[in-house]
Amino acid sequence: PSPTGYLHVGGLRTALYCYLFARKNGGKFILRIEDTDRERYVEGAVENLINTLEWVGLAYDEGPTKDGKDIGNLGPYTQSKRTEIYRKYAQELIDKGHAYRCFCTKERLEEMRKRQEENHLAPMYDRKCLELPKSEVETNIKAGIPFVIRQKMPYETIKFKDLIRGNIQFDGKTVDDQILMKSDGFPTYHLANVVDDHLMEITHVIRGEEWLPSTPKHIALYKSFGWNPPEFAHLPLLLNADKTKLSKRQGHVAVEEYIKEGYLKEAIINFVVFLGWNPGSGEENEIYTLDQLEKAFTLDKVHKAGAIFNLEKLDWFNWRWKKQNFLEKLAVLTGKIDLSDEKSYQEFLKKRG
Questions:
Q1: Coil/strand/helix, residue 294
Q2: DSSP letter string over 215-265?
Q3: Could you report the per-residue pLDDT of 271-306, keeping only the tens digit for each?
Q4: List of the chain residues with pLDDT < 50
Q5: Which residues carry out catalysis?
């Protein structure tokens, strides 16, 4: 997640699916703070993110802690502490001819986009700086002219298999030469994540559908470095009742707001896991503990279509869990079950339905 405020419901769903997938397959669930967008950084957001993950019960195996230290041997797990690493790999891409420095001003880029829009062309960088002579590049650098580093997209078909969406391909000619390093010296998501995923030995990347168009850029970067890419799984969009993309204009989108309103963590977990996943095979049960979800969850049961964010369903889950907690307490008080006895507890649940 990016520390730009509270944890979005969509961010919690991504974390939950990653957590469940890791637990189901004997892997590790890693928390990495992606804070390279310094303009949007919010003080205290990292601590808030960790607190929320702890509250819902998603314990990570590697990542930063609230006291600024790291758990795990492949850190730092905060991207702003890894800038020298990204600069090294950005230079490697330039040296190999897979990236180039771009000195274009904001005004020129805006004029370029305007012309493209007028001519009904896709908004893409026109590669003006790609063919700059080496001497001119060196002169610009010595003169202190600001520049970004852009990826040189290969003009070829890029294919990959998405674990949710199947075989996908993009024509490299239709993909923009993405900025990899900004003029402030910080990387963009594209370079930082590819480098970190490789160095942190990531095998599976589970993220939102909005990142699908960026995947060919990432596949091309892996190829440029000579690395094997991880497997990708892109989750369906979260939608409002009117099927527009979920936004705070139509209600709360921050997990913390629901915590403040008194929703139980079990209800939030159950609600979020069904935003795109279903156990299938005629399974009608909708009430799962986190332990039960670890056993039931598989990526092949995740939908491709957008998931409707229905607050009435969240209210139902909350009522259902409050009822279950009350009945369990009542049964313990009356001696009908012993919660320490798993068999007794399961028989109790079966009778109650």
A1: helix
A2: HHHHHHHHHHHT----EEEEEPPEE-TTSSBP-GGGS--BHHHHHHTT--H
A3: 999 999 999 877 778 899 999 999 999 999 999 999
A4: 353
A5: 248
User: Please, are residues 66 and 47 in contact by the beta-carbon 8 Å criterion?
Assistant: yes
* Largest distance between two CA atoms of the chain: 86
* Structure confidence by residue, pLDDT tens digits, 101-137: 999 999 999 999 999 999 999 999 999 999 999 999 9
Q: What does the alpha-carbon distance between residue 188 and residue 86 come to, in Å, rounded to a whole number? A: 10
Q: Which residue has the tokens 């012309």?
A: 115
Q: Give 156's contacts (C-beta < 8 A, 6+ positions apart).
A: 172
Q: What are phi and psi of 8, to 5 degrees?
A: -70, 150
- Write a three-state SS string for 20-42: HHHHHCCCCCECCECCCCHHHCC
Q: Are strands 166-171 and 99-102 parallel, antiparallel or unpaired?
A: unpaired
d(CA 156, CA 154): 6
Q: Under a CB-based contact definition with an 8 Å cutoff, are residues 13 and 54 in contact? A: no
